[in-house]
Amino acid sequence: MEDQGSEARRTQIETGRNLKPVKGVKGTTELSKIPGCDRSTAFFPEYMHLILCLLKEFMTLWFEKDGPWSLKEYRDAINESLKKISVPDFVTRIPRSTEDFDCIPESDVIKANLLLRVFCRTFAVLYKHDYYTYYMHQLCHLALTVQRHGPLHCNSAFMFESFNGTLAKFIHGTKNQGKELVNNIRIAFGVEAVRARVLYCSAANKPLTAELEMK
Length: 215
Description:
This protein is mostly helical. It has helices at about 5-15, 40, 45-65, 75-85, 105-125, 135-140, 140-150, 160-170, 175-205, 210-215. Helix 5 (about 105-125) runs antiparallel to helix 7. The termini are far apart. The model has no long low-confidence stretch (mean pLDDT about 80).
């Protein structure tokens, strides 16, 4: 299952150096200059942007586009069914048996790879070629990604996307946002450091003033 397209990509990148777009590649990235860095293995499909974005594309096809795949006439019924689903707010995971571990056998990865490739090949039988996007092509690389880097959920961008919201809360003005962001982060870290010292002094029964003077 090793990637067979490395040489072809290198050729496309070399062509891109002359600013001639080839198959959507308009140029090279500075990361390609890192010695020994093979971008085909160093960077891989990411669960949030690939799987979830692809799911959104399919939902758009099913509920907003016309075609033999369209579910627009059932949209109201489906929405009503979705609204009726209710679970306690404290339930985050369905209980599993003690024998159920998060282990992905090699046979499952191989089977998933075959099914994904069949899906991509037969996609145009029902859907138009126009809908065969970059995300669709990336499905062919998911099994190899799991083999090289582990389960997809272990390499998602959810944590980073969530932190983007945290960073946005540090910015309140419209000018010098970079400086404001850095200053507010420093303040936040300073407050957290003081909080940690307070907790330490409380647990160790030490006077806080003496501890702060030492710092």
